[in-house]
Amino acid sequence: MKKYLFAFLFLFVALSSWARQYGPYFMYNNTPTPSGYTKVVCFSNPNYIGVGVVLVNVETNEQIHLSTSSTYQPMWFYFVPGGTYRVVAVNAHMAKVKINGFDVGEGDEVVFCRNASGSLIAFPDE
Q1: Beta strand pairing status for 37-42 and 116-124?
Q2: With contact defined as beta carbons under 8 Å apart, do 51 and 43 qualify?
Q3: What is the mean pLDDT of residues 91-104?
Q4: What is the predicted pLDDT for the residue at 73?
Q5: Peptide bond into 24 cis (omega under 30)
Q6: Distance of CA 4 to the CA centre of its chain
């Protein structure tokens, strides 16, 4: 039994070390933006509107999950590898989602420039 537990723990540690951490990081975190990445700031909304967005890199098929706060939590940010992404899912009930200032929905493409900044925010759908 100990042999299986040890093997499981080793596998867990190995997989965890390979996982990429894109965020979220709170805004007071002073971590510099890695080369080739975009710092995407996710704004909180005082109207209790929180959204989740799933993006897929069109070149690598890697999925990125971004979300905003639906409460008065402080803003946070993610580091996203620069490139073109397709929006595959938007979890926003009665809300519009803007990425980099543009309304987005499922099927739209979003470009994150390397070594730049971007934004994600939700607005009430009026």
Answers
A1: parallel
A2: no
A3: 90
A4: 72
A5: yes
A6: 35
What phi and psi values does residue 49 have, to the nearest 5 degrees?
Answer: -110, 115
Nearest to 67 by CA among 20, 21, 121, 123: 121
Residue 72 in this model has a pLDDT that exceeds 80: no
Reading the block at residue 9, the tokens are 């723990």
Specify the higher pLDDT residue, 27 or 63.
Answer: 63
**Tokens representing residue 125 in the block:** 């759908």
Looking at residue 63, what is its pLDDT? 94
Q: Give 8's contacts (C-beta < 8 A, 6+ positions apart).
A: none
Question: What is the β-pairing status of strands 109-112 and 83-91?
Answer: antiparallel
Rounded Cα distance, 93 and 87, in Å? 16
Tokens 């040890």 sit at which residue?
6
Q: Is 95 helix (H, G, I), strand (E, B) or coil?
A: strand
> Position 66: which residue type?
L
